[in-house]
Structures are given as C-alpha cells and as structure tokens.
Amino acid sequence: MSSIAAYYAGKNVLITGATGFMGKVLLEKLLRSCPEVKAIYILVRPKAGQSTQERTADMIKCKLFDQVGEDCPDFEEKIIPVSAELTQPHLAISPDDAKRLLSCINIVFHCAATVRFDEPLKYALQLNVMATQQLLVLARQMQYLEAFIHISTAYANCNRRYIEEIIYPPPVEPKKLIDSVEWMDESIIQEITPKLIGDRPNTYTYTKALAEYVVQQESSNMNIGIIRPSIVGASWQEPFPGWIDNFNGPSGLFIAAGKGILRTMRATNDAVADLIPVDVVVNLTLAAGWYTAVHRPKTTLVYNCTTGGINPFHWGEIEYHVVSSFKRNPLEQAFRRPNANITSNYLINQYWITVSHKAPALVYDFYLKLTGRKPRMMRIFNRLHKSMLLLEYFSSQSWEWTSDNVNMLMGQLSPEDRRVRTFHRALLS
Ligand SMILES: CCCCCCCC/C=C/CCCCCCCC(=O)SCCNC(=O)CCNC(=O)[C@H](O)C(C)(C)COP(=O)(O)OP(=O)(O)OC[C@H]1O[C@@H](n2cnc3c(N)ncnc32)[C@H](O)[C@@H]1OP(=O)(O)O
Ligand SMILES: NC(=O)C1=CN([C@@H]2O[C@H](COP(=O)(O)OP(=O)(O)OC[C@H]3O[C@@H](n4cnc5c(N)ncnc54)[C@H](OP(=O)(O)O)[C@@H]3O)[C@@H](O)[C@H]2O)C=CC1
C-alpha cells in the first residue's frame, strides 16, 4: 500500500463541497485509492426539496462512482452525510453532529465556495470568507485534527502577473469589510463593489483572496495547507477520461462552440490557457493533506496547482483542438457546424457577434415564431454573451505562478505514490 493510502487508513475525513465538481472527485478518489479510510463526513445542505441523505444517495449513483463501486462494493458505508448550510450561524450543524465531528475528525478538506463571477459581494463574503472562518472555529476544537486543507484558486491574486506560493496581504482587513456590509443595504453594497474589488475582475477572486488571509490568520496552531488550482477541467485519467458535471469556466463555451452556437470569442491566441484536469488537482490535494499531517510544515504551505509553468498550452491551440475535436465527434442537435474563432480585437469580435451570433438568432427565432414555436435562440445567445464577458478577463492575458512547493511535494512521494497520484509527471508528458 502507498504511504499516502497508509496514512489515510483508519482516518476520519471531513469534506465540505463534496457535492460539487471537485468535491465529488475528491470523495471518489479518497474512497477508491485509500480503501482503509475509516469514514468520510460530508457537509451537505438540503436543496431543491431533497434532504441531505437523499442528495448524497443520488450523488453516489452518478457514473463517477461506478469504478469505486466495483472496487469497494461497501464504499457507501464510509460516507457519512452531515446536514449543514455554510451561510448560517455555526454552519447550521446540529449540536450532536458538531460534537461527533469534534471527537473524531483527523483531516478537513474545505472545497465549498461560490464560484460565480457575478455573485453579489455580501453572499460571496458570507460563503467564501465567513463560512471559512466558522469552519476554522470548528476545526480548532477538533481533538484529533492533523491537517486542514483549504481550496483556494490560482486567480485569487490575479491582479498580479507573477504569483508566488505565498499568502499576499489582503485587499482589505476582512473583519472591517464584514462589519460594514452587515448593516449596509444591498443596493449600497452593489454600488461600491467595483471600488472595493479594485483591480480584481470579480467578487469571486476578491473573496477567495480574503479567505486565504483568514485561513492564515485564524488557523492558530493547526497544520494548514492551501491549494490554488487554476482552470479546472474534465478528468484526464481517473476514474475515467473526460468526466465533468458543470458548464463552469471554459467548459460551457467549449460545448457552445461544439453546438455551433459560439462562433467568436475574445481571447489572446498566445496567452497561456492554464487548464488543469480535475483528477490531477485532487491527486495533489490528497498528497498535500498527507504531507501537511505527517511532516507538519512550520508555516502554511501554498501549492500553486497550475500547468503553464510546466507544460504551457495557449488559447490559440485550444481554438484549434476544440473545433477539430467537435468536427471529428459532432454533438447531437447542433445549431450549426462547429467553427469558432478567437480574436483579441474588440471591434472584430463585436462584428462577428453581430453577424454570426445575433443575426442568425433573430432569423431563427423569427422562423420559430412563424411555425408557432417559442423563440429561444436570442435568450441562449444573451446568456452566452454574459458568460463570455465574464470569462474574457482570464483568456486575454497570461499569469506566471511559481511551483516550488508543488515540486517539493512531488519529490516527497514514494515511487508507488507517484504511480497512483499523477499530478506532475502527467503535466510533463
Ligand atoms: C473555440 C472555443 C474557444 C473558447 C475559449 C475559451 C475562453 C474562456 C476562458 C475561460 C477561463 C475561465 C477562467 C476561470 C478562472 C477561475 C477558475 C476558478 O477559480 S472557479 C471556477 C470558475 N467559475 C466559473 O467559471 C463560474 C463562471 N460562471 C458564472 O459566473 C455564471 O455561470 C455566469 C454568471 C457566467 C452565468 O450565470 P447565469 O445565472 O446566467 O447562468 P447560470 O445560473 O450559471 O446557468 C444557467 C444555466 O446555463 C448553464 N450555463 C452556465 N454557463 C454556461 C456556459 N458558459 N455555456 C453553456 N451553458 C452554461 C448552466 O448549466 C445552467 O443550466 P440549468 O439552468 O442549470 O439547466
Ligand atoms: N472549478 C474550477 O475551475 C476551480 C475551482 N476552484 C475552487 O475549488 C472549490 C470547488 O469548486 P467547484 O467544485 O468548481 O465548485 P462547485 O460550484 O461545483 O461546488 C461548490 C460546492 O460548495 C457547496 N456549497 C455552496 N454553497 C453552499 C452552502 N451555502 N452551504 C453548503 N455547501 C455549499 C455546493 O453544494 P451544493 O451542491 O449544495 O450547491 C458544492 O458542493 C472552490 O473552493 C473553488 O473556489 C479553484 C480553482 C478552479
């Protein structure tokens, strides 16, 4: 058994955000690669009329868990759903559940967050910063806690071009901001948000930067690790290639291009597209949990989980591969044949948006109306244009991240672990 799997044997793990894209993959990999893990507690909020238990039961039916179902048929018994709502006081965890968590948890992986770029600042603060503070309060009381791993983003400091594996001073003292927004009317907060976030593009990156600072300041004597993934895409190898369950980041735009809807997008051809497969991120995350608990670094280590510095890929190449892949494997019910082009020129992009997005949408909606059907194309294009506007910031420029801690972590792995947990070699190939 690899030393990482040996470490997690007999341990009780807590995951927040386990129903999310990355959280699911983390849960699955832990169950499959560390079969001796004792229990995995997952904080799951009731949602859309489903209880915590019902949501969990539904979640593990998804294809992602097929492999672990074959390898470890009783894996479900290791998953212990705990009802929580991270924006509520004490995370809305019942006193009994809290007592149980305090008495047994050895490692925490904090994945839960709002990743929306257009999230109102107050909510983004509540979930990405205040919930993290609440979780740290809980973690500090855990009698047997060995490591607390916080999932941040490589773009938390995207207002810098060169980003080291350190926690930068926050744009504002989080407590001051939290106290101010407590009493402010939503409309006032909305008014001042652009000024507050300053040279960051959205409330997401802003609050993720604040969260890192809070983790550093409020972790007292806990062993902390911070993971900063860049743009997380579909799985590369595990449990099978190509698994993803959302339209976030470029994924939605790739689909829109494959459906022949997206024909033009503002991006810079030679800007680095720092995409990283979700299974590679999860392998690094589990390795960091092991390293933090076993080697107990004196300071909080930050891991820039990025690819641009190791095996750079560019948006111009993405354009080529996305279009050629969908030409070879066309999507069903495509609106048109895939033929997307990126351009860094605003006017050219606006021209193509008019000619190859809006005009065809109007014509097609007119045809739908004529044939007694509900027009829908313009609505789809408006939603797509909103996504594109929010994502352009990230596809029009490049960043450089150091990766000394990631390299160090790789160096600590045994040959067996390197085989089981590719998070570096994969990027070199
Ligand atoms: C040849 C092609 C070339 C392409 C070039 C690509 C360049 C693009 C580069 C991109 C870089 C990305 C950099 C990310 C860096 C940071 C990473 C991280 O750290 S965190 C993760 C990132 N977070 C996000 O990606 C959230 C971004 N998304 C949002 O904030 C929202 O989705 C938003 C504001 C864009 C839209 O919000 P709404 O409210 O209008 O829509 P909603 O509620 O999200 O979704 C409504 C429905 O539309 C689908 N949808 C959402 N986005 C879509 C999309 N882009 N394409 C298609 N469908 C989409 C959803 O699945 C949903 O479907 P239902 O109603 O549930 O059935
Ligand atoms: N995807 C990416 O490209 C990247 C993601 N990250 C980071 O990785 C982490 C996970 O991201 P990702 O998996 O993409 O995000 P998702 O949006 O897929 O998942 C978010 C998770 O947080 C949970 N959550 C949200 N609000 C609450 C709440 N109020 N109470 C309890 N749980 C809640 C969601 O639960 P529910 O199912 O109930 O909504 C879900 O499990 C985040 O911290 C993000 O910043 C970093 C870099 C890139």
TrEMBL record:
The keyword Lipid metabolism applies. Keywords: Lipid biosynthesis, Lipid metabolism, Membrane, NADP, Oxidoreductase, Peroxisome, Transmembrane, Transmembrane helix. Gene3D superfamilies: NAD(P)-binding Rossmann-like Domain. It is an enzyme of class 1 (oxidoreductase). Its EC number is 1.2.1.84. GO terms for biological process: lipid biosynthetic process; long-chain fatty-acyl-CoA metabolic process. It catalyses: (9Z)-octadecenoyl-CoA + 2 NADPH + 2 H(+) = (9Z)-octadecen-1-ol + 2 NADP(+) + CoA; 18-methylnonadecanoyl-CoA + 2 NADPH + 2 H(+) = 18-methylnonadecan-1-ol + 2 NADP(+) + CoA; 16-methylheptadecanoyl-CoA + 2 NADPH + 2 H(+) = 16-methylheptadecan-1-ol + 2 NADP(+) + CoA; eicosanoyl-CoA + 2 NADPH + 2 H(+) = eicosan-1-ol + 2 NADP(+) + CoA. Residues 357-420 form the Fatty acyl-CoA reductase C-terminal domain. Residues 15-284 form the Thioester reductase (TE) domain. This is Fatty acyl-CoA reductase. It comes from Latimeria chalumnae.
